[in-house]
């Protein structure tokens, strides 16, 4: 493809994952300014998940391109707090990026197909 630089937009990634898994993937962008004390909280109203039974792709924005293979991404943990419904990202480095959620199960005991 002429002029293609290997970068995909969050929307393109969201659509591709959603199509493959037929699960309605959702991308939530974030900035380094939203982190507080090494933690970024994503509320249930933003991510739309019903439980901790989900998969995700975490990416860092580097030179305006989303990348998943960075040290910041590798060093970030992602957890789901059932009481609040928040998804919590924890990292020693605050960074700009996005997280795409997919594979949400209505029944968390069921495997993703």
Describe the protein in words:
22% of the residues are buried. The chain has helices at 10-21, 44-47, 71-74; strands at 26-30, 39-42, 55-62, 65-67, 77-80, 87-90, 97-102. It has a four-stranded antiparallel sheet, covered by helices on one side. It has a three-stranded antiparallel sheet with strand order 2-6-5. It starts with 9 loop residues before the first helix and ends in an 11-residue tail after the last strand. The protein contains three helices and seven strands; from the N terminus they run H-E-E-H-E-E-H-E-E-E. It is globular and about 40 Å long. It has one domain (10-102). The longest helix has 12 residues, at 10-21. The protein is of the alpha+beta class. Mean pLDDT is 81; it is low at 107-113.
Topology summary:
Blueprint: H1 10-21, E1 26-30, E2 39-42, H2 44-47, E3 55-62, E4 65-67, H3 71-74, E5 77-80, E6 87-90, E7 97-102
Antiparallel strand pairs: 1-7, 2-6, 3-4, 3-7, 5-6
What's a quick, concise take on this entry?
Helix content is 18%, strand content 30%. It is built from 3 helices and 7 strands, in the order αββαββαβββ.
The H/E string reads HEEHEEHEEE
Structure classification: alpha+beta
For this entry, what is the oligomeric state of its chains?
Answer: single chain
Residues in helix, % = 10-25%
> How many separate helices?
3
Question: What are its keywords?
Answer:
113 residues; alpha+beta; four-stranded antiparallel sheet; three-stranded antiparallel sheet; 3 helices; 7 strands; 18% helix; disordered C terminus
């Amino acid at each position: 493809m002429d002029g293609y630089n290997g970068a995909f937009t969050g929307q393109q990634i969201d659509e591709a994952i959603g199509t493959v898994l037929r699960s309605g993937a959702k991308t939530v962008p974030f900035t380094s300014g939203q982190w507080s004390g090494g933690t970024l909280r994503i509320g249930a109203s933003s991510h739309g998940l019903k439980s901790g039974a989900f998969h995700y792709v975490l990416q860092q924005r580097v030179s305006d391109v989303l990348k998943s293979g960075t040290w910041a991404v590798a060093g970030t943990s992602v957890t789901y707090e059932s009481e609040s419904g928040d998804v919590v990202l924890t990292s020693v480095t605050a960074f700009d990026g996005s997280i795409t959620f997919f594979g949400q199960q209505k029944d968390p005991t069921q495997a993703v197909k």
